Target: Diguanylate cyclase (GGDEF)-like protein
Amino acid sequence: MTSSTNTRPRAGDRGGSDPRSAGRWIGLVVTLVIVAIVAASLAAVLATSRANKTSAADETVARIGDRTADLVMAHLDVAAASLDQIDAVLTDAEIADRDDRLDRVLAAQLVAHDQLSGSFVGYPDGDFVFAYRDTDQLMLRRIDTTPTRRAIDHRLGSDLATDNTFVIETDYDPTTRPWYLGAAADVRSAWTEPYVFFRSGQPGVTLARARRVEGSVTAVTGVDISLAELRSFLDDLPIDDGAEAFLIAGTTIVAAPTGYDLDGDGDELPSVEVAGVTFDQLHELVRSDAPVDIGADGRLHLTDLPGANAPSWSVLIRTDDVGVVGALDQGARIALLMIAVAGICLLVATPWLTRWLRRPIEELRRMARIDELTEVTNRGTFLSDAEAALDDVRQHGGPFVVALVDVDDFKRVNDTFGHAIGDDVLRRIGEAIKANVRGNDLVGRLGGDELAIVIRGTGQAESDRILRRVRTAVVTACAEYGVDITIGASRLAGRTIDLAGLMIEADHELLVAKRQGGKGQVHWADPEAPDPTPLRLRLE
Model:
C-alpha cells in the first residue's frame, strides 16, 4: 500500500476540495443555521407566549369576572328597584295607615319580580306586614300588636284579593331582626348578610330601607331576594371544565355551580373551604389585590361587585393548571414537534401558527359577550353597548328607543312541551329579532325569557313598525307552540333621562300591558306623562 492517501494534496489537485463535497457541507451548514434560527425564533416566540400565558389568562378571567359581577348586580338591582317602586307609590301617611292598599302594593312586587321571595314593612311598635311566596301561592301575613297581639296569614287570589285567612302562632318581632336594625342605623338601603331562607331552604339576602319623619324611624320597608337563580349564571360562564366560579361574601359561599351543596349548617351558608380554597389562600388573595397561584390546584381570581350600594360580595374564580387559555400549551407542544421535523416549514408557518394559537382567546372573548342560547349579546355586554350608544346620541343628537321583549306565558311552554322546547323557542326568538332589526340596532338577552332592543336614528313611527315586524316574525317562527310576545318601549324624546330610566319606563309599559290583559302587543311609554309608574296604574 502506498502512502499517497496520507499526503496532503498539492496546489492544483482536486482531492478533498471537491466543490460538490464543499457545497454539500455548506448546504448542510446553511440548513443547520436556518433550522437553528427558525428554532431559536420560534422558541423565543413560544417562550414569550408561555411567559405571557398567565397574563393573558388573567385578563380573560378578569373580563369574565367583571361580566359575572354585572350579572349578579343586575339580579340584585331588582331589590333596589322594588324598594324604589314602593317609595314612589306609597306616601308616609299610607305606610302609617297600614290598610289594604299597602297589602296590594307589597304583593304586586312579587308579581312584577320573579326574583323576589318576599316584600314587607316592619314598624317600631312590632307590627309587621309581609307578602311572600309559598310554592306557587302568594300569601300575606299581618302581625298586629294592638289592642292585643295577633298574627294572621291570608292566601291571595290572582287579583291580589284575600281568598282564605288563617290565624297562626308566632313570636316574630321585626324590630329585633338584622334587616330592621341595619336599616334603622343607616341612612341608605342596608343589605343583610346572606342566609338560608327558612321556607325554601335556598340562599337569599334582604335589602331594607328605613322611612323617617323628622329623623325618627316610622317604618322599615324591605324585600327578600333569592340567590338560587345565580347558580345558572355560574354554570354558563365561558370557562374551561377545569375552572369554576363562586359568589362569596367574606369567607362564605353565597352561590356555587351545580354540584355544590349550599345547605350549610342550619341557616348558615358554607365557607369557601367547600370549594377547595383555604382561608389563608383567600386572605392572601384579598391582600394582594391580584390573582394568586395555589400550586397544583391552579390560580385564584377575585372580582368585587360594582356599585356604591352593592353588598360586600365578590366573584371568586379558580382556574386549574391549564386554565382558561389551556389550548396555548397544547399548541406550543405541537409547534415544538413541528420545529424538530421541519424547521424551515415552521418559519413559513409562524404567522398561521400565531393566529391558530390566538383562536381560543378570541373565542373566549366572543363567548364573554354573547348569550350562548340565543346568540344575541348577553346582559352585561348589551347594557355596556347601550350606554355607549346613548352617550353617542346625546353628543350628536337623534332618536333613541329602548324596548323590552317578554315572552307571554313562557312558563306554559316549559310546562307543556318541556325545557328543551323552551330553549328552542328562545333560540328562535333570538334569531327572529336579529333578522328583523337593522344592522346598527342592538339586541341582548337580559335573562330568562326577557330580551331588549335598542333602536337608533329613527322616530317612534318607524321604530313601532320595526317592533311590530319583530313580533310578527316571532309569532311565525314559534307558531307550532302558540308563542307570542309583549313589547314595552320608551323613547328618549330629548330628555335627560338615563338608560336605567328608559328601561324602567319600558318595563313599566310591558307590565301594564300584561296586567291589563294586553299581551301580544307593542306598548309605548308617554314621555310627557308625569311620573308614569305601571305599579300605580295596576293598583288604582
Notes: Residues 19-89 form the longest helix (71 residues).
